[in-house]
Design goal:
Layout (H helix, E strand, L loop, with lengths): L3 E5 L6 H13 L3 E6 L4 E8 L8 E9 L2 E2 L10 E4 L4 H5 L3 H12 L4 E4 L3 H6 L7 E2 L6 H6 L3 E2 L4 E4 L2 E4 L5 H15 L4
Parallel strand pairs: 1-2, 1-6, 2-5, 6-7, 7-11, 8-9
Antiparallel strand pairs: 3-4, 10-11
């Protein structure tokens, strides 16, 4: 039986934060599905840092098809969840179907990897209270408001939750997540 992992995302997600875990987890032997508000071709973005800008810049990125809509997801079919960042989490957190999916993963203590602005989604279902997390550094106050202890680190592991700041931290983020996956949901 192939183990399935779900990535939840939408338009304006950071290209690398979707496609790196997608490819890395497939390489490891997992069947990875991307869910979005609807089945469509998603339009990702590239966030980069340029001299003279106070924050990151945003440019058009890759496109990629969503495998299924949030309304089609059965969380029980998946062993783990990945939540990329970018701007997508800002509007996705308002989707009631997605909030049901997120809650299911936390209620069953399945492994969850979140990065950058992704923790805005887990905060929307009150899954960060009492946890240690990291996120894009500008979200420190948001994480504290959600009841989390923010740490500015490449990756923070709290039980089955692995969080990371942004795409430059991918290697450490996926290394920590795969350690949990191999223990809780190994590929057979």
């Amino acid at each position: 039986m192939t183990r399935k992992i779900l990535i939840v995302t939408g338009d304006a997600a950071e290209s690398l934060e979707v496609l790196y875990p997608y490819q890395r987890l497939r390489e490891e032997g997992y069947d990875v599905h991307i869910a979005a508000p609807t089945r469509k071709k998603l339009r990702f973005v590239v966030h980069d840092f340029e001299p003279g800008f106070d924050t990151y810049t945003e440019k058009p990125g890759y496109t990629w098809p969503a495998d299924l809509a949030f309304s089609e997801v059965d969380p029980g079919e998946y062993v783990a969840l990945v939540i990329p960042g970018g701007r997508a989490p800002e509007y996705l957190r308002n989707d009631p179907e997605l909030r049901k999916i997120l809650k299911s993963f936390f209620d069953t203590d399945k492994p969850v990897a979140q990065i950058c602005h992704g923790p805005l989604l887990t905060a929307a279902v009150d899954a960060l209270r009492g946890r240690r997390v990291t996120a894009y550094p500008a979200l420190e106050l948001d994480m504290q408001a959600a009841g989390a202890a923010f740490q500015d680190a490449e990756a923070v592991v709290d039980g089955t939750l692995v969080s990371s700041r942004a795409w430059p931290d991918h290697s450490r983020w996926m290394r920590e997540f795969l350690t949990i996956l191999r223990a809780k949901a190994p590929v057979t």
